[in-house]
Amino acid sequence: MDAAAVRPRSPVREGPVPPQGSVPSRSVAAAPVPAAASAAFTAVDSDLAGVRGPFLSRPPVLSEQRPTGPASVQSPFQVPAQPPARIPGRPEAPSRTPAAARPVPRRMPERYSVRGQILDALRNSLVGGELVPGEVYSAPVLAERYGVSATPVREAMQQLVTEGAVEAVPNRGFRVARRSERELTELAEVRALIEVPVLLRLARTVPAEQWHGLRPLADETAAAAMAGDRAGYADLDRAFHRAVLSLGGNQQLVAVADELHRRAQWPVVRQQIGRTSRAADLLADAAEHAALLDALVDGDLMIVESLVREHFLGA
Q: In terms of C-beta density within 10 A (0-12 exposed, 13-18 middle, 19 or more buried), how is residue 18 classed?
């Protein structure tokens, strides 16, 4: 074999053997720079820095990516948001705080107003006959009777004007309206148109146990009639009719019928045969309550209708 064709082996490198398939890195030693050339480069760079100035220098690059996550760190270049300055003389803008975060004001409990108390007292005086039909009553005189100022009395009397119980008299006060026999008959007809169909339907559908549950209320009306308490009887009478009509489930009908019943209870100017005293009127009216319950328990529709119409005429 020719000695020239044989290549000399490279010396064995000591140290860790690189993994198979990887290319070992080769470090190239940098050539030394002469001292004179290094000094020249430094001088040129210094001259360029003076010429470049602030206009050619690159500003720092600010990242537009917003930090996310709870552990994000605020950038030193980020300027904290400041609230807008308030201009003197201009009202402040309304708060944009969500409604759920705003404090909810406490609702104060509603008290029974003085006007409502006076209105109830005047209605009882009308039913009891203390306010005579045709007489004129001034607000200051009534206020002195009830121990209040004249303002709630005037407001209550204005409500009675809208209900037709009294009439406003300029510079004098309020006159109690005179109710005629015709007006009473008209109220009875309207009440019959509303309540009779409801009671006939209830007589066919409501079980007897529910009618028996109204017996205590009927007994209370009889006790008030026996005592001659016309104002107390008026309240119990309306309560009995509301309880009967409420079994139908129509609260709007109950409210309308109760208002008509209230108007029918005001004193009227009439001549009645066979009734000589108020106590006798109340006792006869209370007895019709018990008879009506008996007819409803039995389901006798003819007696129910007859009793209701007679009861409305005598209300």
A: exposed
Pair (218, 301) in one structural domain? yes
Say whether 137 sits in a helix, a strand or coil: strand
Q: Are residues 196 and 212 in the same domain?
A: yes
Q: Put residue 196 in one of left, alpha, beta given phi > 0 → left and psi -120 to 50 → alpha.
A: alpha
Q: In this structure, are 188 and 295 located in the same domain?
A: yes
- Mean predicted lDDT score pLDDT of the chain: 74
Phi-psi region of 173 (alpha: psi -120 to 50; beta: other; left: phi over 0): left
**233 within 8 A of 225, measured Cβ to Cβ:** yes
CATH of residue 140's domain is 1.10.10.10
Counting the structural domains of the chain, the total is 2
Residue-wise burial string across 270-289, b where 16 or more C-beta atoms lie within 10 A, e elsewhere? eeeeeeeeebebbeebbebb
Q: Which residues contact 114 (CB under 8 A, 6 or more apart)?
A: 148, 152
Per the structure, the complete domain to which residue 292 belongs is given by: 181-313
> Do 252 and 133 have their domain in common?
no
CATH code (residue 288): 1.20.120.530
In-domain check, residue 142: yes
Task: Check whether residue 141 and residue 206 sit in a common domain.
Answer: no
Q: What is the pTM of this model?
A: 0.58
Report the alpha-carbon distance of residue 306 to residue 300 in Å, rounded: 10
Mark residue 89 as left, alpha or beta (left: phi above 0; alpha: psi -120 to 50; beta: remaining): left
User: What is the amino acid identity at position 100?
Assistant: A
Write out pLDDT tens, residues 136-154.
Answer: 999 999 999 999 999 999 9
Specify burial of residue 196 (Cβ count, 10 A radius: 0-12, 13-18, 19+).
middle
| Better pLDDT: 256 or 184 | 256
CA angle, 46 then 51 then 52, to 5°: 95
Residue with more model confidence, 223 or 61: 223
